[in-house]
Amino acid sequence: MLLNLNIIDLAVVKSLDLDLEQGMSVLTGETGAGKSILLTALGLALGDRADCGYVRPNCPRAEINLEFDLVDAPLALQWLKEQELDAEQQCLIRRIVNHDGRSKAYINNRPVTLQALKELSEKLVEIHGQHAHLTLLDNDEQRRLLDAYAKNQPLLDKVNTSYRLWLKTSKELSSLIKSSIDQTEREELLNYQLEELKQLDLEHFNYAGLLERHGKLANLGQILTTGQAQSDLLYENDQQSVNQLLNHSLNELSHIVQFAPEINNICTLLSEAQIQLEEACLQLRRFLEAQEADPQLLEVLENQIGILQNLSRKHHTPPEQLPEMVLKLERELDSLAHSSERIDALTASAEQLLGEYHQLATQLSEQRSLAGNKLQQQISVMIKDLGMPQGEFLITIFALDNATPKLNGNDKIEFLVSANPGLPAKPLAKVASGGELSRLSLAIQVTTSSDKTTPTMIFDEVDSGIGGGIAEIVGQKLRSLSHNRQVMCVTHLPQVAAQAHHHLYVEKNNKTDMTSSTVRLLETEERIEEIARMLGGIHITANTLAHAKEMLLHSDFGLQPEHTTTGN
Question: Do 498 and 549 touch, CB atoms closer than 8 A?
């Protein structure tokens, strides 16, 4: 149950702290007073899309806070526990909308996504908007209402899971069958490509090493010329080599070691350098002597590199990755070789899934038929109470093409009505006037909501187009819904307002530079005055007041509010 609604800087509401009670509460006020903004606040807090236009002018952000008692919401409590967001029997929802349109959502003071917020909200609050009678004309909405009334969701989930598995399998099967048409040509091409690649001995393939060998042979002349020149410079030249210079330096320094012993360490280092130089020059000489030009090998290497580069371009892959290309082609060839086996397996699987789907869809159709008969009888009784004494409501369930599975089952569900005796029932859109459609919508919403577990229900002017004694019956129906849940109703009808346990009044304040709206709970005398205003307009007479008081008495009104509401 919703215990408290707190709003800060949202549109015409500067601040509002509204305590709510069990039972039926009505929200009334002059047109334009701001009743809709309260429902907007609830919608935002429950996951509706945010917009910077909701933020009160010259304010950095708007904030909405909701407090729920979860004693009567076991599904919500279970969801919170599964998400590790539970806080005993309490639930706090917070939504902040910044002036740039960005928003944040919190559940029990922990940030959550809007998707998570919507999942929880569905288990806490059910909102029936003032245009519900228009959506009622849609066949998919009619199906949804029937399934909700029949509590078909678990079975519906199984049907749709079965449908998606069948669809996935069928698509894969169709793709394989289509591919198998060109399978022979593809197998021939793959075998040719593999044979061409495997001639390169890719098991011992080393493209980097091949490039290295080719580079060495191709530049052997430069290697020998440069190597011999450096060998001469370092050691071979007796007149002026690095080795001769080191010998000269050692001889000169040895003459002064006796006068400067510190130089002895330097001489040692130079001697070691001379030894290293000799070893380096020896290895260089051996390397140069071992080199031998091989024009034939160079030509072979150039041919191999050319072949690899051509294959690289042909297969759109770097030369060093050609071995991986072989593996890829082998896998595809293996897949083609086994595609017939895969087609057989998928065909059997698709047939099995098709059978499972039809079994579940048939079960779903049977449950819809049973629930439809019961629901149409209940709604027919109710629309008679709502001013359609000759009205008959029918729910037809047509079997669609059973050969092809469909989402949500193989049924087309349509709501029909006959407003007058002797006339055949026709779809709602073809026979119902605006007022009749509003009454039908209300009858359907009240009937389909009677068995729901949602603890809080909100009706936004769903009684439009209704008046007189019918309006009183509408109020009674809404009040009956509040016997085991919380019901909030925005209304312009005094007959509906008189049925409420609690009466909230919205008024606009234009005394300051910026308009603001407030909400307050009416005491008994104030309720009488407000209902009189709704009855009589601007000029309220003693008779109007007496009529308003009588309406409250006839509705068994007697509960005195014990809580307070503040707003400014």
Answer: no
Pairing mode, strands 125-128 and 456-460: parallel
The pLDDT, as a whole number, for residue 202 is 65
Helix, strand, coil % over all residues of the chain, rounded to 5:
55, 15, 25
Would you state the pLDDT for residue 131? 62
Position 485 scores a pLDDT of 86
Q: Where are the alpha helices (DSSP H) in 48-182?
A: 74-82, 114-121, 132-135, 139-150, 153-181
CA distances from 340 to 180, 206, 433 (A): 8, 38, 60
**486 near 458, Cβ under 8 Å?**
no
Q: What is the pLDDT of residue 132?
A: 61
- Is residue 23 packed enough to be buried (19+ CB in 10 Å), middle (13-18) or exposed (0-12)? middle
Give how far Cα 324 sits from Cα of 170, 194, 206, 388, 398, Å.
32, 12, 13, 77, 56
Give the CA dihedral 368, 371, 377, 381, nearest 10 degrees: -120
Q: Supply the pLDDT for residue 356.
A: 95
The DSSP annotation for 373-394 comes to HHHHHHHHHHHHHTT-TT-EEE
Strands (E), 236-365: none
Low-confidence stretches of the chain (pLDDT beneath 70): 32-33, 130-134, 181-182, 201-204, 431-435, 450-452, 465, 510-515, 537, 556-568
> Hey, what are 73's tokens?
């919401």
Query: What is the model's pLDDT at position 112?
Result: 93
Q: 117, 93 in Cβ contact below 8 A?
A: yes
pLDDT score at 133: 61
Residue 478 · residue 499 · CB < 8 Å: yes
* Residue pointed to by tokens 């919190």: 106
Phi, psi dihedrals of residue 511, rounded to the nearest 5°: -75, -25
Q: Amino acid letter at 247?
A: N
CA 338 to chain centre: 38
Whole-number Å distance between alpha carbons of 538 and 523: 21
Give pLDDT, residue 556. 63
Altogether, the residues listed in the chain come to a count of 568
Tell me the two tokens of residue 433.
């006037």
244 touches 237 (CB < 8 A): yes
Q: How far apart are CA 283 and CA 262, in angstroms?
A: 33
